[in-house]
Each structure stands twice: as structure tokens, then as C-alpha cells.
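Action item from last week, closing it out:
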Amino acid sequence: MEQVLSWRKGLFDSNYQVFNNGFLKFSMNFISWKNSAIATTPAGIYMFKSEGFSKPETKLLNNKNEVLAIITYDWGRFQAKIVFASGDTFDWSFQNSWLKRWSLNNHQDKQILFNASTGSGLLHTNVDDDLIILCGLFVREYYSRLIFGLIIFICCMLTFKSIF
């Protein structure tokens, strides 16, 4: 069954809300200076906890601190792999150079396509699993923060270079 859901986030924050037919389906709130988030769905509360720098990964935990999924990142290609405890594996990747379209795909029967505009977007899914959708939004925000940090770093370096 294919669904079209909408999502939005604040302009200066990283709090996502996903809607189905105008009603809030679930939300995800990022912790300010960390690549971690808390997600609330009708099924429960979940935590995305990121660790590592050279081989970064994020663990999706339930409220009993059990690992439900592990997300690993490929910074060079802006891709990620999500492996669920059930054995399901999804590949996450951007679909265009403007970083406004991305997808999650298990290369069998499950696929989610995400579209973004300023602070909102749509997602087309044939999967009825909130955690998979949350993972897709989390990875997008992870890379958005990485790119933003890189831009700030470059601007600071250029500013310091011109001072000295």
C-alpha cells in the first residue's frame, strides 16, 4: 500500500514532524549540539545516539535501551547503510545534486522517496514502518549538519587567513 506523508521542521531547529492526512503521525527532536535525537511514535519513544568520528555510526534504541538498528555513514559518497536487528538492510542516498531528494531502499520490495523544500517536504512510501521513515529523516539531518559545520569551518578559516 503506497502512502504519501508530509513532513516539516523548524527553520532554525531540527525538530521534525510527520503528518498523515493532516494529522500528526510522529515526531523527532534533535539534541542541540549532538547528532542525537529522540523520536516519539504511537508505538513508543526511541533514541538515535551517534558515536565515533573516523567510523561514525548511529544506534537506534528503544526505551529499554535495546539496539533496534545501526546506521553507518559513508561521508565520501554521502550515503548510509541502515541494518535493523530483524536483518533488514536499507541503503540511504541522495538522488540529486541539490540534496533535496533522497531515498531509502532495501533493493527488494521496500522503498521510500523523500522530497524537500524549505523546511518541509513529502515522502512516498510503500512501507508502513515508522522507524524506517525516522531513519531516513535522521540521516538527512545528520548530513545537513555535517555540511553546515563544514561551511562554518571554511568561513572561519577564510576569516582568520585574512586577519593574519
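Closing note: The domain at 3-163 is CATH 2.40.160.200 (Porin).
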